[in-house]
Amino acid sequence: MKRKLGNYIIAAFIINVFAIMSVGGVCILLVKDMVNNISHLEKESEDVPKIDDINKRIHQMISSIHHAIIHTDEKELAGAVRIIDDVQLEVREYKTTEESLVDGQHEDEVELLTKVQGNLTDIRQILESQRQKFASHQKIDPEELKKLESLSYTVQQLTEVINQIHFKVITELVKDSYGRMYFILFLYLVSSFVGILASCVGYFVLSRHTISPIKKLASATEAVASGDLSTRVDTRSSTEIGTLYESFNIMTERLQETRKKREEFSKELERKVRVRTLQLRKAQSEIVRMEKIATLGQIATSVNHEIKTPLNSLYMNLQLLSKQIKKCDKEDQEKIDNMLSVASVIDGEITRINGILDEFVKYARFAPPDLKKSDLNELLTKLSGMISQSAQEAGVEIQLDLSKDMVPIMLDEKKMIQALLNLCVNAIQSMKDGGTLTIVSKKTKDHVMINISDTGPGIPKEKIDKIFDPFYTTKEAGLGFGLPIVQRIIEDHKGRISCRSKEGEYTVFEIVLPMLFLT
Predict the structure, then answer these.
(1) Which residue range is the domain that position 499 belongs to?
(2) Does residue 354 contact residue 308 with C-beta atoms inside 8 Å?
(3) Is 155 within a domain?
(4) Closest alpha carbon to 420 in 459, 390, 376
(5) Which of 237, 285, 352, 437 could form a disulfide with 242 if both were Cys (CB 3.0 to 4.6 A apart)?
C-alpha cells in the first residue's frame, strides 16, 4: 500500500501546531494565574499597611492614656477616644471589604476583625467611663486601667495575627507565582529541546527519505543523460519517492529496450544492406560475367570462322609440304631432317592454337546439361578410379568419405565428371611433394554437397577471388578456362561452387546442389 509523503508532512505540521498551541495555551493559563496572584498580592499588600495603621493607632491610644494619667491631662484622654473612634471606623470598613470576599482565609480574618471590634468597643466604653471620672475629678480605678491595657494588647496581638495571615498568603502567592514561572521556564526549555530534537529528527528523516533519494535520483539521471541506460535506482520507500524511483526504472528500462531494439534494427538493417549489397554485387558480377560470356560467344564465332578456316588450310598445306619434303633426294638428308623438324614445330603450334580455340569456343558456347538420374556416390567412386594412377605417381593418397543415405539425383554425368576431374587434377598437381586428396559427399535436408580438399600449399587470399575468372591461371601452360568451365557446369546444374583455403595447409572446393534436383 502506497503512503503519501504529503500525508506525513501534514501530520507533522498538525502535531507541531497542536504542540505549539498546547504549550502556548498552558503558558497563557499560567500567566493568567500569575496575573491573578499579582492582583491578589497587591490587595494583600494594601491590607498589611491598614492593619499596621490600626496597630499603630492602638499604640498611640495607649500612649495617650498613659500621658493623660501621668499628666492629668483630659485632652490626652479625649485624643485617645478619638483614636478609638477612628480605629473602629477603619476596622468596620475593612471588615465590610473582607466580608465581600468569601474564602477560608477571609473568614478567619473576618472572625479576628470581629474580635478586634469587640475589644475596641470595650476599650471605648472604659475610656468613656474614665473620661467622665476624670472630668468630675474622681479617682481612676486601677483595675479598669489594667483591663484597658489588657484589651489594647489583645487588639495588637489580633492585628499581628491578621498580618501574619496576610504574610502567609503573600508568601504562598509568591511561591505559587515562582512555581508557575519555573513551570513556564520548564515548558520553554522542554519545548525548545523537543523542538530542536524534532528538527534534528525531521532533518535526518527528510535527508534520508527525501533529500538523499533525490540526490541519488539526480546522479542516476545524469548517468542516463550521459548514455548509461543500464542505471537503476533501488529503494524500499512506500511514499511518492518510491513511486518516482519505480517510474524512473520503468522509463530507463523502456529506453534501454528502445535502444536495444534500435541497435538490433540498425544491425539487422546493416546486415540486410550488406546481404543485399553482396547480392547486388554478385548479381552485377553475374551480369558482367554473362555479358562477358555472351561477348565471348560472339567473339568465338568470329574467331572460329576467321582463324580456324585459314588455320585448317595452313595445316593441310603443311601436311602436303611434309610429304613433298619426304619425297626429296636422300642425298641431302640433313636438310630434309631440318625442314621436317620445322614442319613438326609448326604442326605442334597449329595443334596448340586449335586446342586453344576449341577450349575458348567450348567455354563461350557452352551446351546445356543433359540431366539424367544418376548415383552420385557411384560417380565419385568412378572418378577416384580415373585419377588413382596419376595420384599414385604424384605420391597423393585418395580418401573417399561418401554419405550412406545418398539418393539418386538428376545430373549430366559427363559434364559433372569433367568438372570434378578438373578439380581433382588441379589438386594433385598442386601437391608436388605428395599429400592427401579427400572426396566427400553429404546429404542435408535441402542440398547435396561435394567437398574436394587437398593438403597442398593453398591459395593466397589476394588470388582466391580471381580463380573463377576466364583467362586467369597460375600455371605456366594453363589457358585460364578450367575453373570457369567448372563453375559453368555447376551453375548449369542450378548449384554453386565456393573455395576456401589457408596458405601452407589446405584448399577446399565445396559444390552445393539444391534439393530441386533430387528425385
Answers:
(1) 369-519
(2) yes
(3) yes
(4) 376
(5) 237
| Residue 388 belongs to domain with CATH number | 3.30.565.10
Confidence (pLDDT) at 519: 45
Q: What are phi and psi of 61, to 5 degrees?
A: -60, -45
Interacting residues of 366 by C-beta distance below 8 A, sequence separation 6+: 293, 485, 488, 492
- The span from the CA of 209 to the CA of 215, in Å, is 11
What cell does 197 get? 530534537
The 8-class DSSP code of residue 207 comes to I
- DSSP string over 288-321: HHHHHHHHHHHHHHHHHHHTHHHHHHHHHHHHHH
Among residues 360, 361, 399, 355, which one has the least CA distance to residue 381? 399
Greatest alpha-carbon span in the chain: 231
Residue at 86 is within a domain: yes
232 and 249 Cβ atoms separated by less than 8 Å: yes
pLDDT digits (tens, 9 = 90+) for 186-218: 888 888 888 888 888 877 877 777 777 777 778
For residue range 440-456, what is the model confidence (pLDDT) as tens digits? 999 888 889 999 999 98
Q: Count how many Cα atoms sit within 13 Å of the Cα of residue 177 in the half-sphere of its side chain.
A: 15
Q: Is residue 111 part of a domain?
A: yes
Contact 483, 468 (CB under 8 A): yes
Q: Count the residues in the chain.
A: 519
pLDDT digits (tens, 9 = 90+) for 504-517: 889 999 999 886 54
Residue type, 5: L
* Tally of structural domains, the chain: 2
Name residue 453's beta-bridge partners: 438, 508
The CATH number covering residue 55 comes to 1.20.1440.210
